[in-house]
């Protein structure tokens, strides 16, 4: 029981570091600890020969509601896709559809929930629950992405581990950028408010 708890804690910490720290301009590498597993089976796929697909993503224009929570809940998700050079040098785009696409969307929504709960929930259990759901959702999405087949230059193949996590990193970066923008828009601007915000950010939970 103690060993399982340690493994679960390791997986949560690893995925949440990836989720909270990645932004759209920087990539946080996935580690073996990330895949350790939060109760989700992990599939290991050998990398194929040939170049890896590039991951691209874009977000629609931001939308504000009456408050931060409503804005977060109503916010759409970024569009993420894969690209590679075709046989004649043309750019070939591969959209994520089917079960893989749905799992990526689910991971994005749980990331939004986790970010808000981490910053504003005073309920420790709620913060734990959203962190756990984000861990399981991210690992599950990575597993689904590993089953996603693409017509690559070297022939039809499934995504590699690196490509799967690159998709999730790209989405997490765009979502974090969007969340920061929403949070800044609704943040109180007084000196005391800024101090409380600074302390809470340093402590990693809403103490004040």
Q: Write down the domain tally.
A: 1
Please work out how many helical segments DSSP would assign: 6
What oligomerization state is this entry in? single chain
> What is the H-and-E element order?
HEHEEHHEEHH
| Bulk shape | elongated
Spatial order of strands in the largest sheet: 1-2-3
| Gyration radius, rounded | 18 Å
Number of strands: 5
Q: Which residues form runs of ≥5 with pLDDT under 50?
A: 1-14, 26-41
Distance between the termini: 35 Å
Binned, the helix content reads 40-55%
The average pLDDT value, as a whole number, equals 80
Instruction: Summarize the biggest pleated sheet.
Output: 3 strands, antiparallel
Strand fraction band? 5-15%
Query: Which structural class best describes the helix and strand composition?
Result: alpha+beta
Question: What would you say this structure looks like, in words?
Answer:
Helix 1 (2-21) packs across helix 5 (161-186). The longest helix is centred in the C-terminal third of the chain and has 26 residues, at 161-186. It is built from 6 helices and 5 strands, in the order αβαββααββαα. By secondary structure, the protein is α+β, with helices and mostly antiparallel strands. It has one domain (2-40, 54-203).
């Amino acid at each position: 029981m103690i060993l399982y708890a340690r493994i679960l804690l390791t997986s949560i910490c690893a995925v949440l570091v990836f989720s909270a720290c990645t932004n759209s301009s920087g990539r946080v590498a996935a580690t073996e600890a990330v895949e350790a597993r939060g109760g989700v089976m992990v599939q290991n796929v050998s990398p194929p020969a040939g170049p890896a697909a590039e991951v691209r993503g874009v977000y629609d224009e931001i939308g504000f509601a009456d408050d931060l929570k409503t804005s977060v809940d109503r916010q759409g998700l970024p569009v993420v896709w894969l690209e590679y050079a075709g046989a004649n040098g043309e750019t070939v785009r591969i959209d994520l559809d089917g079960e893989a696409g749905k799992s990526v969307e689910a991971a994005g929504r749980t990331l939004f929930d986790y970010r808000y709960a981490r910053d504003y929930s005073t309920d420790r259990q709620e913060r734990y629950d959203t962190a756990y759901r984000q861990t399981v959702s991210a690992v599950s999405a990575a597993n689904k992405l590993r089953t996603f087949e693409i017509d690559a230059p070297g022939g039809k193949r499934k995504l590699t581990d690196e490509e799967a996590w690159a998709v999730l990193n790209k989405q997490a970066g765009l979502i974090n950028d969007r969340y920061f923008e929403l949070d800044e828009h609704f943040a109180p601007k007084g000196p005391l408010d800024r101090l409380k915000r600074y302390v809470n950010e340093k402590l990693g939970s809403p103490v004040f």
